Amino acid sequence: MGASDSVTKTKRIQSQVSFHNSASPIVSIILAAYNAEAFMTRAVESALIQSGPPLELIIVDDASTDGTFALASHFAQSDTRVRPIRLETNSGPAAARNAAIDVARGAWIAVLDADDAMAPGRIAALVDFAQRESLDIVADNFWFWDLRGQTAIQTAFECTSQFKIVDLHEYLSNTQASFDSTDWGLLKPMFRREFLQRKKLKYPATRHGEDFMLLMACLLDNAKFGLLGEPGYFYTTRASGFSRTFVDYGGMLAQCETLLRHDAIKRDRSLARLVRSRAISVQSLAAHHHCYGMLDGHAYGQIALELCWNQHLWRAVLRSADLRHELLGVLQRKLQKTLSARL
What's the domain count of the chain? Predict the structure, then answer.
């Protein structure tokens, strides 16, 4: 879809939505985009059709080499709520989001990724819940979305109409980066801007795990965090091929080491235990990724060698049924080939 077609479609959607463009925004939706021209329209339109409180959409082009900024500018021409910004150098999603926060005017900061989307009415539901419960942070359940199949696969956790207040212990307990549960570090929260400003909190200068670290910083600074059980966000799976994010497992381990030096965590053995558990889980995920890389490269001897000493690889094999299936398949094919050669 070209830029002109995207703008025309957005204008058509806008004509169906009752909204006062001149109103001061209550919510600033921030969207970091890098080479997102081919897929950003879905995210933008999902933001612009939100009903309820007045909003602005700040699109930060992280020095893209395609037409991302041109597309953002076209949206701005057709809708005064869209504010495009272009960074001179590619600095990663954390820096792009911080640039958006610096110019945001809304009382609330809502995060939206360029390859994701929001369900209609999501922002209104988050704001209503946050104001009713006097929250500093609010998030909701989300769908894992298969973009190629245009289907929702499953929710991050059990879908429910209830909500809960989440403390630091519960949040950390659900950020273990395991193979059989969703890491709550993937949640896309909405922050009270005044809280971030008062506490002088921003996204850390990292290219992975920045959402987790900012939310941790908020909770360690006594933020009140609420979570809705109903899904309102569509998280596009990595299998779509649209994600440009490189998973920096080493950086995530460094984040855990930083947290373990925090006074509040050093004083609380249960918090320290949870952070160390996350570190072990991250190492297992790194080994999992490494093993698939060796499988793709047919480095079967290297896999056998590493299984002799790499405890994290063993942990990844034990925890991941898919990886076990792949390794057993390789072993079976090798045995069949050996037997056929001897017969």
Answer: 2
188 and 212 part of one domain: yes
Q: Is the pLDDT of residue 12 over 50?
A: no
Query: Hey, CA dihedral for 191, 248, 113, 229, is it positive or negative?
Result: negative
Pair (210, 258) in one structural domain: no
Question: What does the pLDDT read at residue 52?
Answer: 87
Domain that holds residue 282: 249-342
CA 124 to chain centre: 21
Q: What CATH number does the domain containing 154 carry?
A: 3.90.550.10
Q: Domain boundary at 240, 259, 282, which?
A: 240
Quick one: 20 exposed, middle or buried, by C-beta within 10 A (0-12, 13-18, 19+)?
exposed
d(CA 122, CA 104): 19
Interval 209-255: pLDDT, tens: 889 999 999 999 999 999 999 999 999 976 544 444 567 777 888 88
- Which tens digit of pLDDT belongs to each residue from 170-197? 999 999 866 567 889 889 999 999 999 9
